[in-house]
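Worked example

This section walks through a single chain of length 285. The input is the sequence exactly as stored; nothing has been trimmed or padded.
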Amino acid sequence: MNPQLIRRWSYNQLKSKHERLVINKNKNNRQLPMPLTLSLLNNDRSNLTIDEWNLLSNIIHAYDEVNIIPQMKYHLEQQSSLPPKLRLNPSKSILIFKIFLSTFLPFIEHSSYFHDLSIHIRQILIQNNSEIAGTLNSIFVIREIKALDNMAFITSCTSIYGDEVIKHSVQLAARLETNGILVKIMILILAFSTNCSIINPYYSGSTMNLSSALSVLNIQSMLVTMFWKYLIYHYGFSGAVRCFNHLIKSVLDILYSANEMRNTYHENLVDTLVEETKRSLITEN
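Given that input, the structure is written out below as tokens.
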């Protein structure tokens, strides 16, 4: 072998090459993806417990059991098919609104937590929360069935509620959270509030003692905790904050309209439904 053909390396050249190899190796190590675990539970990004997932499922199932959306679509189609004079009869919209508001009551009655409470506390919840929670449910259903696109419905409603209330209802429906699951959970959270409506000083039977209030707050706390975890699971922390804030704003808008746009017919309708439900709670037992 000719020694002149052997490539000669200085110490500095060898050291430089070794350092380059080490750097490249480290870069490759940093770029290797972490292997995914085969466990689906470990891949689940949510913090919801199994009980909380079951609670969420039960809420959606309870609402869907009393789902009136197909029925309401049928009523609107029937109203639109009538001759003009009958089509604009306010009694048709009165029937529809009565169904809207009455649907909230069987929804809360499907909750096992509701039946864990005494009859007196259940009556207070119905008394205090039916108007606001029921109105939120009504706006949700109105949006889902596109009732505000039906001119016969709009015209007959305007004759009952007035133009300002209908315009405000259009705005509320347009701003309402688009995810129906979140709205359904929010309705139940309001239902288990000690009082989410405007306080009526003339109705003394709508207050709870401390022990009863704590029982209701425990249920609401359980619902809100599950709801918050579900929001974070879907939207991340910042998105959950924005979404929850948006839902609270919708509830506050409903409270504002209930206070500033009082309607005698609507109040009488709610009062009648509330009293009928409270009496039915006694008869059931």
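What to look for: Confidence is low (pLDDT under 50) at residues 1-9, 28-43.
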